[in-house]
Amino acid sequence: MKLLLMLTAVVEGLTGLSLLLAPSLTSSMLLGVEINESVGLVVGRVAGAAVLALAIACWQARDGERGSASTGVVAAMLFYNASVESILVYAGVRLEFQSPLIWPVIVIHNVLGIWCLLILWRTSRRPAVGTASPVAE
């Protein structure tokens, strides 16, 4: 769980920071489409702040144990990765956004989402820290 949260914090931290500071350039690099209107720039910066907040939460939760806030952060990141992947697939296929980075970004979110799912599945099958496991009679 620690490696997933640290990697996510770095990747999403860089993405959030770039959206916050240069939303049009980041949009152009990721989607092949620039943000031209002031409303889009504001929304891009708000999205950047939100992604940066997720990165901070991941970094802060990286040393947690199962059953702690870390598990909740991993569950939130599963939702985030699945949502971003779905939105980007829609943008690439239906809206025909073209960028050399869109499909690698989709793959990265897919891998991170599967990793989150596996961690949640694995931790749900183990007893929580500090609880006694049932004794076979």
Number of helices: 5
The tally of strands reads 0
Q: Strand percentage, roughly?
A: under 5%
Helical content stands at: over 70%
Describe this structure in words.
The chain is an all-alpha fold. The protein has one domain (2-124). The protein has 5 helices and no strands. It has helices spanning 2-21, 23-31, 38-61, 69-93, 102-124. Helix 1 crosses helix 2, helix 1 (2-21) packs antiparallel against helix 3 and helix 4 runs antiparallel to helix 5. The radius of gyration is 18 Å and the shape is globular. Residues 132-137 have low confidence and may be disordered.
Write a brief structural summary.
The protein has 137 residues and is an all-alpha fold. Helices cover 74% and strands 0% of the residues.
What's the SSE blueprint?
Layout: H1 2-21, H2 23-31, H3 38-61, H4 69-93, H5 102-124
Helix pairs in contact: 1-2, 1-3, 3-4, 4-5
Keywords:
single chain; 137 residues; mainly alpha; disordered C terminus
